[in-house]
Description:
Blueprint: H1 2-19, E1 30-35, E2 41-46, H2 56-67, E3 71-76, E4 79-85, E5 88-89, E6 94-100, E7 114-117, E8 120-124, E9 139-146
Parallel strand pairs: 1-9
Antiparallel strand pairs: 1-2, 3-4, 4-5, 6-8, 6-9, 7-8
Amino acid sequence: MKKLLTVFLAIMVAFSLVACNPKQVDEKGTITVVVMQETPLNYTVKLEDLDLSEGAFSVVKYLNVEKGMSLEYENSVYGAYITKIGDISTDSAGFVSVFTSVEREWDVTEYCVTKEYNGITVKSSAIGLSSMSIVEGMVLYFCYIAY
Length: 147
């Protein structure tokens, strides 16, 4: 019985270590940020210019401060919740949604939304901005999704 319990615990520890997938934070290169509104906003951001301590949220804060992009958000236990970015806002009919080109952070549920941007597939993110990876060449895409 003791051996069985030891084997079971070893397997559980192995699975928990595999499940831990810390975010990747590249510090060099560029990423593209798109806000899909009536007149889309498109930014190319140099990673060297950023303090990336808050994941992808660092990028939108940088664009707000340095480029004047409109940004409103609420802090929660899950990180920043974007309520307005550019000209799109959360309201009673829908919300601001974040998409990413980083596959390991795609939503894998039946509610996943897929879009294309300049030939690059972006999907709704399974995690919040503060937890998202920063991968050189990635696309961070924001749009309004109606309920």
